[in-house]
Amino acid sequence: MKKIILLSFLYSFPSFAFVDLVMVDKSDNKMYLLSSGKVIKEYHVALGKNPEGHKEQEGDKRTPEGLYTLDYKKEDSAFYRAMHISYPNEIDLANAKDKGVSAGGLIMIHGQRNNFEGLPRYTQQSNWTNGCIALTNPEIDEFMSLVDVGTQIHIKW
Question: Whole-angstrom distance between the N-terminal and C-terminal Cα of the chain?
């Protein structure tokens, strides 16, 4: 019986859960890690300076909306650590082409800007990125330990 209770506890603890979806609610500045439809972790995030609406072009300071893939980790960044979001997709590229603009790219989930890591209690209170999703440095460490490359991310307003 003790063995069953211990195993139950271990498998219910978030660090042992398999994250199969990252969900971002831009209207609430929240990011959720889900495992089999169940939220196992919640973060407060900072977004692009102009968060409402879908990213349409480079420089619009919007965080994209839709379903994407977290496709690689980046350890040598201007920001502490980062994981890349697969924006732009084919639809994003076609829409930008129709408008005669660049769709932009290099949208990441990242930590704090290098040399500003001591300011998250200020930086995380407003939307300050160019379209990325920002966490504190300890949070991005945890995020990158829990989320594998290839995980889907759904970003919505």
Answer: 46
One-letter amino acid identity for 107? I
DSSP string, 46-63: B-BSS-SS---STTS---
Tokens, residue 2: 């003790």
What pLDDT, in 10s, does the model give residues 56-66?
999 999 999 99
Residue 31's Cβ-side half-sphere holds a number of Cα atoms within 13 Å equal to 24
Domain assignments of the chain as residue spans, ordered by start: 18-156
Per-residue confidence (pLDDT) for residue 28, from 0 to 100: 96
- The CATH code of domain 18-156 reads 2.40.440.10
**What are residue 72's DSSP bridge partners?**
84
